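Last lecture ended with a question: if I hand you only a sequence, what can you say about the shape of the protein? Today we answer it with a concrete record. The protein is Chromosome partitioning protein ParB. Below, first the input exactly as provided, then the predicted structure, then a couple of comments.
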Amino acid sequence: MIDPREPIVTPVPVEELRPTQITVGMREVALKRQMIRAQDAKKKTGTFLGKHMVPVVLGPKNRNYVTDHHHLARALLEEGVKDVLVTVISDLSALDKDAFLFVLDNRGWMHPFDENGRRRDYSAIPKTIGELVDDPYRSVAGELRRLGGYAKDTTPFSEFIWADFLRRRIDRSAVEKNFDKAMKDALTLARSKDADYLPGWCGPTDD
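The predicted structure:
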């Protein structure tokens, strides 16, 4: 049995990582790329990667399925970083593909929703990190958390839950034309009672 907290010492090629979601926020990826570029020496880059290991579940054929840090993985790929350390949180490599995907879904290790917020078949999940699709609302949700619109939460894919909330209230063209204005609207929405059911909500209360 693999200790769920024990990292795999041997680096895994970034291009071989398997996503468990369909989208990322490309603005979020760009921020991660800036972080990586700031590590201008190989020694610093090694330290950075050592502190940002990617959690994975081992699936059929011992493939590494990413359960978090998709944005980091995509940024590493775009920056030409070949390998990354991973932390194996569960070994499900003995399962067949259908059973494996079902378990991922039911344990909250998968988010099969497209850039329009629609649930899709498992087959729609890309096979490589490089094929992940941009969802601008995921970028809004990420920036919203950094601005204090809501708190970091352990709920799986909490940023996507916020992204879906914002998707229903801010027009996509508004996000694409004026991101800063969309963020002001997002902050107002985040503090409203309409958002009080969302993970990490920290709006005003009557208590």
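Comments.
1. The chain has a mean pLDDT of 91.
2. The beta strands are 7-13, 23-24, 54-58, 64-66, 83-91, 133-134.
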